[in-house]
Amino acid sequence: MNNENKEIRCTYNEKTISIEIPIDTLIFAQENNPEFPVKITDKRGMLTWVSNNILEFNYNEDDGSTRLTNLLDDLFTEALESGELWLESIDWENKEDE
Question: Can you count the helices (H) and strands (E) in the chain?
């Protein structure tokens, strides 16, 4: 396996953003997790479980958020706070006056 097949990649087109996680990289990372290593004994079972649960992982009934939506919110907050020019804050208090 060459190095390109081991790296997590993020690509986009006009309609979607795709995150590609090589399966062998995911397994390696879990088996070498310094805090809680686990051995994957059934690759297909792992893939089914992850694909069925990743979007709703840690669903919060109060606000409908998940860890994934919180990650995306944090990413955009970081971009705003870092001075990225492709976004700006919305002033919700004054938005109704417009």
Answer: 4, 2
Q: What is the mean pLDDT of each run of 10 residues along the chain (98 residues)?
A: 74 97 96 97 97 92 93 97 96 73
Question: Which of 61, 59, 81, 78 is CA-nearest to residue 69?
Answer: 59
End-to-end CA, the chain: 56
CA atoms within 13 A on the CB side of 28: 8
* Neighbouring-strand partners of residue 11: 18
pTM assigned to the model: 0.75
What sections of 1-98 are H helices per DSSP? Answer: 23-31, 43-53, 67-81, 92-95
